[in-house]
Amino acid sequence: MAPRVPWNPLEVMQLLLAWIFALMLGQLAFNLVIPPKIEGEHAVKDGNQTLTVKFLDSTHYTHTEHNGTYRFQGEGTALNRHALTLSPEDKPEISVTFSGTLRDRIGLLTINIFFVQLSALGLITLLLRYHKIPWSAAFGSITDRQRTLGLPLLCGIGFILPALGLHLVSQQLIIALGGEPTSQEAVEMVARASAPPELALQALSVVVLAPICEELLFRGVLYPSLRDLGHRRMAIAASSLLFAAIHGSLALMLPLTVLAVILVWLYEKTGSIVAPILMHAAFNAANFAMIKILPQIAQ
Prior knowledge:
The chain is α+β, with helices and mostly antiparallel strands and 299 residues long. It contains 10 helices and 6 strands, in the order αββββββααααααααα. It has a 6-stranded antiparallel sheet with strand order 1-2-3-4-5-6, with no helix packed on it.
């Protein structure tokens, strides 16, 4: 059974609000420190057509068929770094998309690691220090290595096919209701990554840090605080739905909610947060590998 915890839902809510504030600070820091900028040649997409455009300075570009000016779409700090409007000298404006610059992608990954993932670990550390409780008492220790280490790895890899099936079901439901399925931004970033530094940061973020901080936050902190009030089903539902929601993709809500329920079961079965961390890491690692081998999965 997962350990009982000394904190209450109000303290967890305060922690989550502090975490959201850190996310906002990270986004602000990213826009201030790394303003949108494009240099040199880049492939952009005009619908299904790919164009090679050379960006000369902050406003001008050149192309084999036309020259002109460009601008990022959006306003202020809400500029979309992956959407541009090209304004040819004697043609109508063209809206294009592109994968973003390597500078922007590495900058965003770095900001995400520090302000999203490491900030969560820092806040959880402060919570434990406030209650004067060690990590092993708060999140359990390993008592059965086979069940705590081996079972999660098998579950993580084994859930890949069910997750893909649930994802397809979600997409069909969204289409049936008149919506349009969209890919998770993090999945698209993994698919676009090609440079070794970017791939290394992606792997660190997706396979190592995300499982650790998300499991500690949702299964280790949030779930038991509600369960210990005597609301076990509500605790499972609330922690699972919130976990799925923060990934920012409606098409992933169903598979991620089911994954979260399995992670709670694993935590309760082993009594150690290490088990859901390992399952989450194995699941993310398998997805990471599949996206790099079969990029169409990201779509």
